[in-house]
Amino acid sequence: MNIEGAFAVALVDYTSGMTLGTLGGSPEFDITVAAAGNTDVVRAKLRTIEMLGLNEPIEDILITLESQYHLIRPLHSRNGHGLFLYLALSKARANLALARHQLRQIEESLEL
Description:
Radius of gyration: 13 Å
Strand order of the largest sheet: 2-1-5-4-3
Structural class: alpha+beta
Number of helices: 2
């Protein structure tokens, strides 16, 4: 939540759709519902990469709305397999390149 423009963040298990932890959100933006719904996005992209025979991991997935950015970053550490970080940002307040960089740093320092 220290990332400029962030208004919600979650750690999610994409194999089950369960949210393991959240911060932020609002009555208008239920981070738990949004995070669980994005498990389908992650699963679909992983299937597509496998069908195409691409041997590369996903760095992040960006969904752009009129007023928001949604960043999905699958974790690649041994203990993070099957998990992703989900970050919702206000487009007016966020620096997308910096947010991606900071999310990558968070992933690298995350202890599971």
